[in-house]
C-alpha cells in the first residue's frame, strides 16, 4: 500500500500540469482569421458551428452558465464577425446564432491546431494496450471527481 508521502510527488506533478492548463486557458490565440480568441470564445464558436443555428438557452444549458453570460460571449463573437444573430423562422422572439464564413474558418483552424498540438499525447494514448488505456480512462474520471470535490 502506498503512503501519502509516496503519492505526494505525483500529486505535485499533477498540480503542475493543471496549473499549466490554467495558464493556457487564459491565453488568447489567432486561429488564422485576424482576431485573437480566448479558449472560452473558440469553444463557444465550435459549439455554435456544430449546429445549423442554436439559441442562447441551449448554449447556456450545454455550458452550464447563465443565459446572460452566453449573451455577453455571443456579443463579443458578433463584434469579431465570427457569428451572426438572426430571428428564428419558427419563433420571432427567439434568436438563432450561426457561424459566419470567418467563424467556420476559425473552427477549422482550431481543430487543426489541436490535431497538431495534441499529436504526441494522442500517439501515446493510441499505443496503449486496452488495460493501460482503461486505467487512463479511470484516472481521468477520478481526476474529475477530485476537482468536483473542490467546487463544492
CATH fold-level assignment: Arc Repressor Mutant, subunit A
Strands ordered across the widest β-sheet: 1-2
Give the overall average pLDDT: 94
Which structural class matches the secondary elements? Answer: mainly alpha
* Form type: elongated
What is the helical fraction, as a range of percent? 55-70%
Question: What about the largest sheet?
Answer: 2 strands, antiparallel
**Regions with pLDDT < 50 over 5+ consecutive residues?**
none
CATH hierarchy: architecture? Orthogonal Bundle
**How big a fraction of the residues is strand?**
5-15%
Please, how many domains?
1
Task: Give the beta-strand count.
Answer: 4
State the helix count: 7
CATH class descriptor: Mainly Alpha
Order of helices and strands: HEEHHHEEHHH
- Name of the CATH superfamily: Winged helix-like DNA-binding domain superfamily/Winged helix DNA-binding domain
GO molecular function: DNA binding; DNA-binding transcription factor activity
Protein name: MarR family transcriptional regulator
Pfam families: MarR_2
Keywords: DNA-binding, Transcription, Transcription regulation
Mind explaining what this structure looks like?
GO terms for molecular function: DNA binding; DNA-binding transcription factor activity. This is MarR family transcriptional regulator. Keywords: DNA-binding, Transcription, Transcription regulation. It comes from Halodesulfovibrio spirochaetisodalis. It contains seven helices and four strands. It is mostly helical. It has one domain (4-117): Orthogonal Bundle (Arc Repressor Mutant, subunit A), CATH 1.10.10. Strand 3 and strand 4 form a beta hairpin. The longest helix is centred in the N-terminal third of the chain and has 22 residues, at 4-25. It is elongated, with a radius of gyration of 19 Å.
Amino acid at each position: 500500500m502506498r503512503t501519502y508521502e509516496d503519492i505526494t510527488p505525483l500529486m505535485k506533478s499533477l498540480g503542475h500540469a493543471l496549473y499549466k492548463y490554467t495558464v493556457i486557458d487564459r491565453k488568447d490565440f489567432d486561429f488564422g482569421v485576424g482576431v485573437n480568441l480566448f479558449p472560452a470564445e473558440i469553444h463557444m464558436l465550435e459549439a455554435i458551428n456544430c449546429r445549423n443555428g442554436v439559441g442562447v438557452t441551449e448554449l447556456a444549458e450545454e455550458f452550464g452558465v447563465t443565459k446572460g453570460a452566453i449573451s455577453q460571449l455571443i456579443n463579443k463573437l458578433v463584434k469579431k464577425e465570427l457569428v451572426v444573430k438572426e430571428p428564428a423562422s419558427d419563433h420571432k422572439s427567439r434568436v438563432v446564432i450561426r457561424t459566419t464564413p470567418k467563424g467556420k474558418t476559425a473552427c477549422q483552424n482550431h481543430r487543426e491546431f489541436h490535431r497538431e498540438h495534441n499529436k504526441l499525447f494522442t500517439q501515446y494514448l493510441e499505443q496503449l494496450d486496452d488495460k493501460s488505456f482503461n486505467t487512463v480512462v479511470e484516472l481521468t474520471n477520478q481526476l474529475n471527481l477530485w476537482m468536483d470535490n473542490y467546487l463544492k
